[in-house]
Design a protein that fits this description.
Layout lengths: L1 H28 L6 E2 L3 E5 L2 E3 L2 E6 L4 E7 L7 E10 L5 E9 L16 E9 L5 E9 L1 H4 L4 E5 L2 E4 L6 E3 L2 E5 L10 H18 E6 L5 E5 L6 H6 L2 E4 L4 E3 L10 E2 L5 E6 L2 E6 L1 H12 L10 H10 L6 H13 L1 E8 L2 E7 H11 L3 H14 L4 H4 L1 H7 L8 H7 L4 E9 L3
Parallel strand pairs: 2-9
Antiparallel strand pairs: 1-4, 2-3, 4-5, 5-6, 6-7, 7-8, 8-9, 10-14, 10-23, 11-12, 11-17, 13-23, 14-15, 15-18, 16-17, 19-20, 20-21, 21-22, 22-23
Length: 420
């Protein structure tokens, strides 16, 4: 009897174990294998909601592969191994981590030699085809390049003590001449820095390079009196001749840009900016109270419009833009003593400027027409004086200077570490 009882007990236990295994097997096999999009997928990236779809391919009660489509901006698809953990309600929790060695891009992929982003996911998938997934991204230490943090726009213009010439400003333009005795754009460059820095200071307060790869900014969205903005400033130190800008809307709070509109990473000597075009257009539509159909942009109409202004789409420009689509927009940078300079040089600007040069006569025609048709508008009538302050008569005069008398060319944005 004892032997019979033992055999019956073992048989019952094996039956329960078989049923349990069968139940577990049945549970994970009930999970959907098709993509889960739209309202059935609650997706967040770094705490902010996003769109896209998820597809879980379970291979056992504890393992599976997760495919994220258009979830993390800059990555059309991310496939990663995940761990499954079944719940008593028949749903499965998912967790996983992966290092991405491809840079975020607007359209196509560019491989890197090392990890740029480390990502982790957590969430839950139900047999009914509902998914909740939270994705966290983090730039690798190498991809941060020591630039992570908040950087304030430079608030001053430094001048030379001997002649009072500018040496640095929030917006700084260098356009040196091969032969200073010939027609050149050195005065024009100083004018752009002088008259462009103060309005910029009124609309941009700081830029944050987040460790999760986001670029965010504190900005001003209201109207700025350009005439007041251009000439506001005070000399605070006669010895070093530093002119400090005044915030003309200092009682109003700065706004913070939403997350996931642009991403960044460092590779080599460059900082790359990757705009999330779809999210930016959607945000513009939201801010303006109108919808923007991001899937129905008429590229041919855009190219036709550029042609109306004599803007030339050269092979070099198209090649440059193609490169941007693969890697993001490159900026050179210099970090030193709590200051950060982001800039583009002559080589980087050349394809764009050479495409725009043929449009300069058209721009002069438009300005002349604007002045003639608005004799009572004082701001428009001041345009010739403004050009004179830039030390040019016509924009078309810049074309032969660029082609024949340009040594160095550089446009920089100058920032300071907000923690200092």
């Amino acid at each position: 009897m004892k032997k019979l009882f033992a055999l019956l007990t073992m048989a019952v236990m094996m039956t329960f174990a078989a049923c349990s295994d069968s139940d577990e097997e049945a549970a994970w096999k009930q999970l959907p294998t098709e993509p889960i999009p739209g309202d059935n997928a609650m997706l967040t990236v770094n705490g902010g909601s996003t769109t896209g779809s998820v597809q879980l391919t379970a291979t056992s009660t504890t393992q599976g592969t997760l495919l994220l489509t258009n979830v993390l901006p800059g990555y059309a698809e991310i496939s990663m191994d995940v761990t499954l953990s079944g719940r008593t309600d028949g749903t499965f929790d998912i967790t996983g981590e992966k290092g991405l060695t491809t840079a975020p891009s607007m359209i196509s992929r560019a491989d890197a030699e090392s990890v740029i982003f480390n990502i982790s996911v957590s969430g839950n998938v139900t047999p009914e085809g509902k998914a909740t997934v939270n994705l966290i991204s983090a730039l690798s230490t190498e991809a941060q390049g020591g630039l992570a943090g908040t950087w304030d726009l430079l608030s001053e213009v430094k001048l030379k003590e001997d002649d009072g010439a500018m040496t640095i400003a929030p917006l700084w333009v260098t356009w040196s001449a091969l032969d200073p005795a010939q027609a050149n754009a050195e005065g024009f460059a100083r004018g752009v820095g002088t008259f462009g820095s103060m309005p910029l200071y009124q609309v941009l307060h700081s830029v944050t390079f987040s460790t999760d790869g986001n670029i965010m900014a504190e900005y001003w969205s209201g109207n700025v009196d350009l005439q007041t903005a251009i000439f506001q400033g005070t000399v605070t130190d006669q010895e070093t001749l530093i002119t400090t800008f005044i915030n003309i809307h200092e009682d109003e709070p700065w706004l913070e840009s939403p997350r996931n509109l642009a991403f960044w990473y460092v590779k080599g000597d460059n900082l790359y900016v990757v705009p999330n075009i779809t999210a930016i257009l959607a945000q513009v539509g939201k801010d303006s109270g109108s919808s923007v159909d991001t899937g129905n942009l008429d590229i041919s109409a855009l190219l036709s419009k550029l042609g109306e202004y004599d803007i030339t789409l050269t092979a070099e420009l198209l090649s440059t833009v193609t490169g941007w689509l693969q890697t993001g927009i490159p900026l050179k940078y210099v970090k030193s003593n709590g200051a950060l300079k982001l800039y583009v040089d002559k080589e980087m600007c050349s394809p764009i400027i050479e495409a725009l040069l043929p449009a300069l006569p058209k721009l002069d025609e438009m300005i002349a027409k604007l002045i003639a048709e608005n004799p009572d508008d004082q701001s428009i009538q001041m345009l010739p004086m403004f050009l004179a302050m830039l030390q040019i008569k016509n924009f078309a005069d810049l074309e032969p200077i660029w082609n024949n008398n340009t040594d160095e060319f550089e446009i920089s944005l100058n920032l300071t570490d907000s923690a200092l």
